[in-house]
Automatic annotation (TrEMBL):
Belongs to the MscS (TC 1.A.23) family. Its main location: membrane. InterPro entries: LSM_dom_sf, MS_channel_1st, MscS_archaea/bacteria_type, MscS_beta-dom_sf, MscS_channel_2nd, MscS_channel_C_sf, MscS_channel_TM-2. The chain crosses the membrane at residues 24-41, 62-86, 92-110. Residues 112-179 form the Mechanosensitive ion channel MscS domain. It is a multi-pass membrane protein. Keywords: Cell membrane, Membrane, Transmembrane, Transmembrane helix. It comes from the Bacteria. Residues 69-111 form the Mechanosensitive ion channel transmembrane helices 2/3 domain. Pfam families: MS_channel_1st, MS_channel_2nd. The lineage of its organism: Bacteria, Pseudomonadati, Bacteroidota, Cytophagia, Cytophagales. It is found in: Cell membrane. This is MscS Mechanosensitive ion channel. GO terms for molecular function: mechanosensitive monoatomic ion channel activity.
Length: 288
């Protein structure tokens, strides 16, 4: 009798499980269909996101990462909805709570890494700098070689690369010499008191204005600045920094100015112990 009762109890329990499983079959089918739908949707949205971002950002790592994040988020949403259809609401709540705790722990453990990641993302999207730009930031001047999620790489023009954390680049001022396609070059020199200032000004402007890399607009400017052992002046002009390096432009302008001043017998003075002003009275032009 006891065996018969035990067998009937087992049968009743198995039958109950079977009936419950049978009732869950439609919900399980719906959940599976939802997962498949969200998986396909994640692929489509991810591809659309990647195509859209490639038009506004050259950072392939950011583009690919964004596509992967979008895909994971959509699949996760589908998983939570599918669990809700199956009536596993408590499981969904537990998963969300666990994800929140994990995210909080990771955020505290990797504060600098997270800050650099977010800053790199904002740089890639806002594009205050681009690859190829000549910039100055955090005390470093150079050409941008790469914009990564974690850092920005500069070529300082001395055979070295400088890798700056994205957080520092994003939070501190950036001087971009390439954004407007123009850069101002200033040359400071002196002339003697015996020279005619109007003549020196005209000669200097003509000498610089004829250089091929000097932009016609804005026009070169010449201004006298101060009196001292000699009369100091500043000569400024504009170049395209993407085609002419600043150092090269300044060097060529100095040579052109010195040649023009020599041709017109204008003496450049820099210190009293370097030049003897008396030589100006008996100065003769160099032979051609």
């Amino acid at each position: 009798m006891n065996l018969q009762k035990a067998a009937s109890l087992i049968y009743a329990e198995l039958l109950s499980w079977f009936l419950q499983a049978a009732r869950l079959v439609p919900k399980l089918a719906v959940a599976i269909l939802l997962l498949l739908f969200f998986a396909m949707l994640s692929r489509w949205v991810s591809r659309w996101s990647v195509r859209g971002l490639t038009r506004v950002s050259d950072n392939l790592s950011l583009v690919n990462l964004t596509g992967a994040v979008v895909r994971v988020l959509i699949v996760s949403a589908g998983l939570f909805i599918a669990l809700g259809v199956l009536g596993l609401d408590k499981t969904v709540t537990s998963l969300l709570a666990g994800a929140g705790v994990i995210a909080l722990a990771v955020g505290f453990a990797f504060q600098d890494l997270t800050a650099n990641f977010i800053s790199g993302t904002m740089i890639a999207l806002a594009r205050p700098i681009q690859v190829g730009d000549t910039v100055e930031t955090n005390g470093f001047l150079g050409k941008v070689l790469a914009i990564k999620l974690r850092s920005v790489v500069l070529d300082n023009g001395q055979g070295q690369t400088v890798e700056l954390p994205s957080k520092d680049v994003f939070q501190k001022p950036i001087i971009n010499y390439s954004r407007l396609g123009q850069r101002r070059v200033e040359l400071v020199a002196n002339v003697s008191y015996l020279d005619d200032l109007n003549t020196a000004q005209q000669v200097a402007l003509t000498a610089v204005g004829t250089l091929p890399f000097v932009l016609p607009s804005p026009k070169p400017e010449f201004n006298y600045r101060s009196f001292g052992d000699s009369i100091q002046f500043s000569l400024s002009f504009w170049i395209n920094p993407t085609t002419t390096p600043h150092a090269v432009a300044l060097s060529e302008a100095m040579k052109a100015l010195k040649t023009a001043f020599d041709k017109h017998h204008i003496l450049m003075l820099f210190a009293g112990h370097t030049f003897d002003l008396k030589q100006k009275l008996g100065w003769t032009p160099p032979s051609a």
